[in-house]
Design brief:
The structure is a single chain. α2 runs antiparallel to α7, α8 runs antiparallel to α16 and α17 packs antiparallel against α20. The chain is built from 20 helices and no strands. The protein folds into 3 domains: 184 residues, MFS general substrate transporter like domains (Growth Hormone, Chain: A, Up-down Bundle), CATH 1.20.1250; 56 residues; 213 residues, MFS general substrate transporter like domains (Growth Hormone, Chain: A).
C-alpha cells in the first residue's frame, strides 16, 4: 500500500497558513463530532418513536439500523470521492443531505419519512474519513497526525454526547424536539464546513465504482438485518442461516468486482497489506467487544429493580452514565499522540484493548452499585479513546496521502459492522439467559456476556501484538 510517489507528489498540498489552521482544526473536529452524535440519536429515542408514532419496537429500531446502514454504504463512496479533486464539494453536498434529513425528522410526517430522514443523517458518518484526509493534506505532519487521532476519538465519543442531550429533550419537549437538536447542529456544521474546509490538492482524480457500491450495500443490508433482527434467528433459524450465506457470497462477489475494477471503491489489494489487514481485523473484533460492553452497561442501568438487579434509570439518567465514557475517551485521545513518541501504534492498540478488557472484568465482578457502572464505563471510554486514536496511525503509516480518505473509510465500514454485531451478540446472549415467562434475563447472563467480551478483547490484543512484532522486524531490517 506504499503507492506511487509520483501520484502523491502531483497531489501534494501546501499546508494552510497558521491562522487558517487554527480555524481548520476545530472545524474538522466539530464536523466529525456532529455527524457521529446525530447518527447516534436513534439509540435513546427508539422507545419514544414507538410510542409517539404507534409502531412496534422492532420497527422503531430501524431508526438506528438504517442510519448505520446508510453510513456504512456511504463511507467508502465518500472516501473515494474525497480522494479526488472535488472533496470540498463532496463535504458540502453531504452535509446538505444530512441537514435535509434532519429537517425530515423534525417535521410531523409519517414514520416512513422519519426513516428517510434518519437514512440521510447516517450518510454523514462517511465524512469522518474525509476530515482525516483534509487534516493530512493541509496540516504539518506532526500536527496532522494528532488531529487525525482526535477526529477518530470524537467520532466514537459523539454517541456519549448526543445520547443524554437527546434523551433530555425527548423528556422535556417530545420526540420532534429531540430531533430538532440534530437539525440545529448539522446546520451549524454545514456553515462551518463552507467557511473553513479548503479545496483538495490539484492533480487528483476519483471515479466511483457504482456496481461495487450496489453489491456492498446489499451485503451490508443483510449483515445489519441479521444483526438487528434477533427474533429471526430464534424463530426462523434456517432463513437466517440462508441469508447469512447470501451475505457472505455477496461480499465475495464484491471483492472480485473490486479486484477487477480499474477504479475500485476500495483498493482490496491494498487492504491485504499485513498492517492494514491486521488493523482492520483488530478493529472488527475490538469493535464487537467495545459496543458489547456499551450495550450491556446501558441496558443493565435501565433494568427495573423488580428484575432482582439493575437500577431502573430513565433514558436521560441512563444517558448520564455515558459521561465518563466521553470524558475519559477524550482524555485518552489527547494523551495518545504524546504516547506515540515512545510507544508504537500497534502496542498502543494492544494496551487499549487490555484496558477495555479490564472494563469487562470490572463489570463482570462489580455492578451492584451505580458508581461501579460509572467506573466500568469510564474504563471502557479510556480504552476506546486510546484504541481509536492509535488506529489511524497503523493504517496511514503505509498509505499514501492521496488514499487517506479511502483507506480510513474501509476501516470505518469494518468498525460499523463490528459495532452492529457487538450489539446483536449482547442481545443474543441476554435473550438466551432469559427464562420462560420472564421479561428480563438472569443476572448471570450479563456475566456470561462480559466473559465473552473479555475473549474478544484478548483476540484484539493478540492481533495488535502481532502487528507490533511485524513492525519491529521491519524497522530492524532497514
Amino acid at each position: 500500500m506504499t503507492g506511487s510517489r509520483s501520484a502523491e507528489s502531483r497531489g501534494k498540498a501546501l499546508p494552510v497558513a497558521r491562522s487558517e489552521a487554527r480555524l481548520l482544526v476545530p472545524a474538522l473536529v466539530f464536523i466529525a463530532l456532529v455527524v457521529a452524535a446525530v447518527a447516534s440519536l436513534g439509540t435513546p429515542l427508539i422507545t419514544s418513536v414507538a410510542t409517539s408514532l404507534h409502531v412496534s419496537l422492532g420497527s422503531a429500531q430501524w431508526t438506528l439500523t438504517i442510519a448505520l446502514l446508510s453510513g456504512a454504504v456511504a463511507t467508502p463512496v465518500l472516501g473515494r470521492l474525497g480522494a479526488g479533486p472535488h472533496r470540498r464539494a463532496t463535504i458540502l453536498i453531504t452535509l446538505a443531505v444530512v441537514v435535509a434529513g434532519s429537517a425530515l425528522t423534525v417535521l410531523p410526517l409519517p414514520f416512513a419519512w422519519l426513516l428517510a430522514g434518519r437514512a440521510a443523517q447516517g450518510v454523514g458518518l462517511g465524512l469522518t474519513a474525509l476530515m482525516m484526509g483534509v487534516a493530512r493534506d493541509h496540516l504539518p505532519e506532526e500536527r496532522g497526525s494528532s488531529v487525525i487521532a482526535l477526529i477518530s476519538v470524537v467520532s466514537i465519543i459523539g454517541a456519549g454526547v448526543g445520547y443524554p442531550l437527546a434523551a433530555l429533550l425527548a423528556e422535556l419537549g417530545g420526540l420532534r424536539a429531540a430531533y430538532g437538536l440534530g437539525l440545529v447542529v448539522t446546520a451549524a456544521a454545514l456553515l462551518t464546513a463552507w467557511r473553513s474546509v479548503p479545496d483538495a490538492p490539484e492533480g487528483r482524480s476519483a471515479r466511483v465504482d457504482v456496481t461495487g457500491a450496489v453489491v456492498l450495500a446489499a451485503a451490508l443490508l443483510l449483515v445489519l438485518l441479521l444483526a438487528g433482527e434477533r427474533d429471526l434467528w430464534s424463530r426462523h433459524p434456517a432463513v437466517a442461516a440462508g441469508l447469512a450465506v447470501v451475505a457472505v457470497a455477496l461480499l465475495c462477489v464484491w471483492c472480485v468486482i473490486e479486484l477487477r475494477s480499474t477504479a475500485p471503491l476500495v483498493d482490496v489489494r491494498a487492504v491485504r497489506h499485513p498492517a492494514v489487514a491486521g488493523a482492520n481485523l483488530a478493529m472488527f473484533v475490538g469493535g464487537i467487544g467495545m459496543y458489547l460492553l456499551l450495550t450491556l452497561i446501558t441496558r443493565y442501568a435501565q433494568t427495573p429493580h423488580g428484575a432482582g438487579y439493575g437500577f431502573g434509570l430513565t433514558t436521560f439518567v441512563a444517558g448520564l452514565v455515558l459521561i465518563p465514557f466521553s470524558v475519559l475517551g477524550f482524555v485518552a485521545g489527547k494523551l495518545t499522540p504524546r504516547a506515540r513518541t515512545r510507544i508504537s501504534d500497534p502496542l498502543l492498540l494492544a494496551g487499549s484493548a487490555v484496558v477495555v478488557g479490564g472494563g469487562f472484568a470490572l463489570f463482570a465482578v462489580a455492578r451492584s452499585d451505580l458508581a461501579e457502572l460509572f467506573a466500568a464505563m469510564g474504563v471502557l471510554g479510556f480504552g476506546v479513546g486510546g484504541f481509536s486514536a492509535a488506529m489511524p496511525g497503523v493504517i496511514l503509516a503505509v498509505t499514501p496521502k492521496s488514499e487517506t480518505s479511502s483507506a480510513m473509510s474501509f476501516n470505518y465500514v469494518v468498525r460499523s459492522v463490528g459495532y452492529s454485531l457487538g450489539s446483536a451478540f449482547g442481545g443474543l446472549i441476554l435473550t438466551t439467559g432469559t427464562g420462560p415467562g420472564h421479561l428480563f434475563p438472569d443476572d448471570s447472563a450479563y456475566t456470561t456476556a462480559a466473559l465473552a467480551g473479555i475473549g474478544a478483547m484478548a483476540i484484539t490484543t493478540l492481533t495488535s501484538l502481532t502487528l507490533a512484532r511485524r513492525r519491529d522486524r521491519r524497522d530492524r531490517g532497514r
